[in-house]
UniProtKB/TrEMBL annotation:
Protein name: Peptidyl-prolyl cis-trans isomerase
PANTHER family per UniProt: 39 KDA FK506-BINDING NUCLEAR PROTEIN (PTHR43811:SF19), FKBP-TYPE PEPTIDYL-PROLYL CIS-TRANS ISOMERASE FKPA (PTHR43811)
Catalyses which reaction(s): [protein]-peptidylproline (omega=180) = [protein]-peptidylproline (omega=0)
Top-level lineage group: Bacteria
Molecular function via GO: peptidyl-prolyl cis-trans isomerase activity
Keywords annotated in UniProt: Isomerase, Rotamase, Signal
Gene3D superfamilies in the cross-refs: 3.10.50.40
Signal peptide: 1-26
Family: Belongs to the FKBP-type PPIase family.
InterPro entries reported in the protein's UniProt record: PPIase_dom_sf, PPIase_FKBP_dom
Pfam families linked: FKBP_C (PF00254)
Length: 185
């Protein structure tokens, strides 16, 4: 009886293992939608970089005027601030104007803090809480109080391939940003 019970448990475990093996093996493979999204992002890294470079050519912005981060954000310093760089957890106030940069909609303002009915005409952000687009999160970590910079954000670090309410998908963006206050935590 004991051998029969052991054999029955062993058989059930073996059947269960055979049944779930495909599930575990699928954990190491990329499903089609994830693969397409990754490929799309890789494609747009090149496209967006070209669009940003074309914008720079139209506006005579040369490589001596900007910094390019590893992830493809371009930063043009208008005025250098002072003090420590912003770090995750800092609460900041930033005045900004967001514009498109593709030639057909170039310089059309899609969002701004000015006139937003706050005393500072700014928006407050706690850096590192993903409350803003990835491009802002990463650029803010390179800034300090008093910085006035223009940042050029590739679409994959903005609203991606699907866009947002008034931002089309695959749209690289530019922002004029002025860091007016930094609360170090």
């Amino acid at each position: 009886m004991k051998k029969l019970l052991t054999r029955s448990v062993f058989t059930r475990l073996l059947v269960l293992l055979v049944a779930v093996a495909p599930i575990f093996s699928a954990c190491n493979t990329e499903n089609d939608s994830v693969k397409r999204a990754r490929e799309h992002e890789e494609e747009y890294k090149k496209i967006d970089d070209t669009l940003i470079q074309e914008y720079f050519a139209r506006h005579n912005i040369t490589s001596s005027n900007y910094q390019r981060t590893e992830d493809g954000i371009y930063i043009v310093t208008v005025k250098e601030g002072t003090g420590q760089k912003i770090v995750a957890g800092n609460k900041i106030q930033v005045q900004y104007i967001g514009r498109y940069l593709k030639k057909e909609r170039e310089d059309v303002v899609f969002d701004k803090s000015y006139g937003n009915r706050t005393i500072c005409e700014c928006t407050e952000v706690v850096v590192g809480q993903n409350s803003v687009i990835k491009g802002w999160e990463r650029a803010l970590l390179l800034m300090k109080k008093g910085d006035e910079k223009r940042i050029f954000v590739p679409s994959y670090l903005a609203y991606g391939q699907f866009g947002n309410t008034n931002i089309p998908g695959d749209e690289p963006l530019q922002f004029e940003m002025n860091i007016t206050k930094v609360e170090f935590q």
